[in-house]
Amino acid sequence: MNPEAPRKTELEELLIDAEADDDSVQQAQPSVVRPWLLLLGLVLVALNLRPALSSLSPLLAEVSSSLGLSAAKAGLLTTLPVLCLGLFAPTAPMLARRFGAERVVLGILLTLAAGIILRSSLGEVGLFLGSLVAGASIGIIGVLLPGIVKRDFARQAGAMTGVYTMALCLGAAMAAGASVPLSHAFGDSWKIGLGFWILPALVAALVWLPQIGQKHGAHRVAYRVKGLLRDPLAWQVTLYMGLQSSLAYIVFGWLPSILIGRGLSATEAGLALSGSIIVQLLSSLAAPWLATRGKDQRLAIVVVMLLTLGGLFGCLYAPLEGLWGWAILLGLGQGGTFSLALTLIVLRSRDSHVAANLSSMAQGIGYTLASMGPFAVGLVHDWTGGWAAIGWIFAVIGLGAIIAGLGAGRARYVQVTSEKV
């Protein structure tokens, strides 16, 4: 078995191969009665996968002051939903097999709405419990959506993955930029700023409802993939996913607090985070395309990680007069790191069965690892009483991501076996 992957058009070929596999997709591309409605539903669902995470950070100082939270507790609050992304991701395939992916997405959208309400209405207990429920909901839906895209938009899988990623970034940017103005518009109530995001979740559930009655295609042959946990390349992909995600969730959870500590208002800090996330729309589409033009992805991984670290250190240490330049640099880097992490899952897999299992491993273990970053920031800030030492966390995580990425970026396939069950 030749471990070398295709060199130039590997992403496109693997996407085609994954969908053309006659054992995994025997029904070919299913006939969707109203594909525009499914597309709209997918976009609206994806828009809801980040607001519960990015809406809290601009309001974190106000929430902590109101409820008397220490920096360590605030760090736990930013860590909890990310930890749930990893812990609950493996339950998604089991739920989908039992109830169907469409029904699970609808039900989990409603639990996401419930989590948003809990954290904005029941004080400290509700804040933590609601964050747990919201993180678990996002973790489950996040695993299911890519599979629905591959199944119902097989010929447009690449373009749809780009649309899906853009919707994620847009939802995060909207929540980061609008949460503080919303709270100010309703009497300086952080509860309104957090609770508002139940509305897009309910709208998405309403638009998604017709999919329950559709006859979507389904895999009729199940496969068991063996050897993934023993494969070094699979672990390198997982570590890269987890470490770059750790930096992303530190930004979601703590960047506004860092900027407020440096002298910005809460509104200005939220807008800086929102602007940085909006820039990710550009690099999240461009980075995978550029990365697949060469023989492998190692250079692209190093470049986007250096951009990310440059933006982080600039936001932390550079004069505030140049903040927007550093925020843009950060956005360009992080949009590339996230989209490359998703792309590596496809490029390092020989077929759709392996890709599905590698995705579950990378997200389940990776996001669990990622949750440690925001928690470490809270602890270090609590110990030192400032933000200067946080740069060491950025450096250690970023260096680890580069090392893992240099392994994951090689043009090879994970070495596993697949068998029917």
Automatic annotation (TrEMBL):
InterPro entries the UniProt entry points to: CynX-like, MFS, MFS_Cyanate_Porter, MFS_trans_sf
GO molecular function: transmembrane transporter activity
Organism: Pseudomonas lactis
Keywords: Membrane, Transmembrane, Transmembrane helix
TM helices/strands, residue ranges: 36-54, 74-92, 104-122, 128-149, 161-182, 194-212, 233-252, 272-292, 299-320, 326-347, 354-377, 389-408
Pfam families xrefs: MFS_1
Name of protein: Cyanate transporter, major facilitator family
GO CC, alphabetical: membrane
CDD domains: MFS_NIMT_CynX_like
